[in-house]
Model the fold of this input.
Amino acid sequence: MDSIIFDLDGTLWDSSDVVVNTWQSKLSYDSRIKQTITKEDLQGVMGLQMEEIGERLFLV
Done:
């Protein structure tokens, strides 16, 4: 064996806080968007396809 791949997302490292901060940062670029994303919001969509994430987070 010449290499090992680690899955850090939730296994060895919880990236939720970093992901929430990134979403908040990107959403703040558009003054029309007043919505915030919480850690709980993200935990509810982890593992879904991007299209499903968008629908669940932004189409109310």
Notes: The chain is about 45% helix and 0% strand. The mean pLDDT is 87. The chain has one domain: 16-58. Residues 10 and 16 are 8 Å apart (CA to CA).
